[in-house]
Amino acid sequence: MSSESLDFDALLADVHRICKSHVAPHAASVDADARFPSEAFAAFKEARLLSCLVPTELGGMGVDFPQLVRMCEVMGGYCGSTAMIFAMHQIQVGCILHHAMGAARFRDVIAELVDKQLLLASATTEVGIGGDVRTSTCYVELDGDHFTLVKQAPVISYAEDADAILITARKDRDAGPNDQVHVFAPIGQCSLEPLSGWDTLGFRGTCSLGFVLTAQCKAENILPVPYADIHAKTMHPFSHIIWAALWVGIAADAVAHARATVRRQARKTPDRAPPSALRLAEVDAQLTSLRAAVRYAADEYEARLARFEGQPFPQDFAYATRTSAVKVNASRQIVDIVGKALMICGINGYRNDHKHSLGRHLRDVYGAALMVNNDRILLQSATMQIVQRGE
Question: pLDDT tens-digit profile of 288-332?
């Protein structure tokens, strides 16, 4: 793929090809063994996909956000855990690109990312605060031009396979819980003391163990803007939309299994459509509507990035609640869609040893509502509803 121009159709075809050869064949073992999808990420690195979001002038592919959403949707159809890791990595890349490129240190980070295809992880949640990523108890302790921080993180996805971790923390010992910074910590400058395991129902391959994370780095590794700006412009909208996209991919693959089942039934009665065809039409319409909503949200976010390029997003409660609604609605609908697909597939979808098994799909999609718990999101949206003006 040339860095001079982007043929996105060709890139998407490459993503399908890589997923068919290096993701799908290992998805079952990644899930069963709760292991990192090493085959997938070796192939992604060889194809230089980890820097796909980086602009072409910096050596990346220059994909825009709606295109990245399409890529994550495709990956989700092959392996939910692989797609989730890829998406979480790209969220961290977006944080650096949107907020830190004025600093020489982070221009070097992006150059290294492109050259070495670094995999970036994230540590935002913390023991004692639940999933509230806008609150930290840990803090950065500066000593000259270096700092130390210690964070008790109940989950850090794929931490042991990452090359660096971006960490949220209070900016110093005396800062309030919401007065946060975002820190880039190369894995060689971190210690990870296991805190909890990861034997879960779904998304098992994300390897989201808990750790006591200690980072000792140079102060230049602190992103040069408050985390509040990073959260509003990047972490919140980027995460919710791109997660929804990969969930759509999981649901789409479930519907594809249902479609194959209906086709097989239809061949037995060529003179009339089987009753399951009506259920298939219904669930496909639901999937189409959800996919359109996610892609609309991606286009809206891309337009806002262009409008406020080089600036923080202004406070906009209406936009924040719309973005949150994308995540909440998608996480609810995908459970319904996969459940309906299971009804169409019947006992074959229920079996773990059948080619049309939907067990992994269903287990993965039930995790969607728990990634930043929907109740927490809705409570925040309810508060914003009180103060926002109608549009």
Answer: 999 999 999 999 999 999 999 988 898 888 899 999 999 999 999
HSE-CB at 210 with a 13 A cutoff on CA atoms is: 12
Whether 178 contacts 132, CB under 8 Å: no
Domain annotation for the chain: domains and CATH numbers: 8-119 (1.10.540.10), 121-221 (2.40.110.10), 227-387 (1.20.140.10)
Structure tokens that stand for 352 in this block: 């773990």
Average pLDDT rounded to a whole number, residues 8-25: 98
Taking the whole predicted model, whether its pTM rises above 0.85 is answered as yes
* Tokens at 223, concatenated: 């992103």
Radius of gyration of the chain (CA): 21
Cα–Cα dist 172/254, whole Å? 47
Is residue 271 exposed (0-12), middle (13-18) or buried (19+ Cβ within 10 Å)?
Answer: exposed
In angstroms, the CA 170 to CA 374 distance is 25
Return mean pLDDT, the chain.
94
Is 379 buried (19+), middle (13-18) or exposed (0-12) by CB count in 10 A?
exposed
Q: Per residue in 140-178, pLDDT tens?
A: 999 999 999 999 999 999 999 999 999 999 999 999 999
| Distance (Å, whole) CA 276 – CA 346 | 10
Are the CB atoms for 67 and 300 separated by under 8 Å?
no
Average pLDDT over residues 382-391: 68
> Is residue 207 left, alpha or beta, with left meaning phi > 0 and alpha meaning psi from -120 to 50?
left
Contact 136, 177 (CB under 8 A): yes
